[in-house]
Amino acid sequence: MSLNSPTLVNEENSQEPKRNSECLESVELQAPSSFQDNPLQQLQLASQELPLKIDIIKHPNETDGKSTAVHAKLLAPDDVTIYKYPCIPEYEEKRHEIALIFPGPNSVSVKDIAFHLQKYAKKGTCVNDNDCSREPFLKQAKLEPKEDLNECISTNGNEGTRLKKIIFIDSTWNQTNKIITDERLQGLLQIELKTRKTCFWRHQKGKPDTYLSTIEAIYYFLVDYHQEILKENYKGQYDNLLFFFSFMYTLIKNAKCCAGRE
């Protein structure tokens, strides 16, 4: 019989209303409409939301396959943005709510973020050369009387959570100089994670074990921020970020053990 046969078409048309009705009744009995919209909604997945927005500035020579920055983008896509240097945003007007993770002589600890950002917010952002000197903010802060800083904290006690974005540099430590000296990053509050030690399997010779991989730095900063700034108990909210890192660490560790036995 031809597929275009009138008999077949008529039979199909006559059955269509019945089939549609049966289909609708079956769907209504099987699940509520909300479940139809999102059949995965009842899975007990951990939240992918981070307390801050994260910008990652990636060196152009950093190999994608070796970089851990992509872990953060995959696991928290709404809160993480990766920029390939030299294409990075202008941070000038938002310096009072942005910080840069990078070790250095002027870097401060996570617990001191509120102290310095409050001071910076009170001082205001420089509009032109006549408004303030060209000295970086952290250097200026160290030259000013201690009582002024204390006054700032007492009058702006709730502004410690003003931090809205944190910046990380994704490159080998030998490649960071060009990025960290970029004028667009000058004057930003710098933070150093001094108490954490890396587990990264490609640790660079001659560098201290407190120099972390990108994903480790993101994770440990968020944990410290949660405890020191948000003043909340940490219950594993950001452990998801180390999902791929943990998998690779175990895989490589096991491979090295097997090689050693051979």
Task: Describe the structure concisely.
This protein has 262 residues and is an alpha/beta fold. 40% of the residues lie in helices and 9% in strands.
Could you characterize the architecture of this molecule?
By secondary structure, the chain is α/β, with parallel strands linked by helices. Helices cover 40% and strands 9% of the residues. It starts with 5 loop residues before the first helix and ends with a helix.
SSE blueprint and pairings:
Layout: H1 6-30, H2 33-37, E1 53-58, H3 69-75, E2 80-84, E3 98-101, H4 113-123, H5 137-143, H6 146-155, E4 165-170, H7 176-180, E5 189-191, H8 214-228, H9 243-261
Parallel strand pairs: 1-2, 1-4, 3-4, 3-5
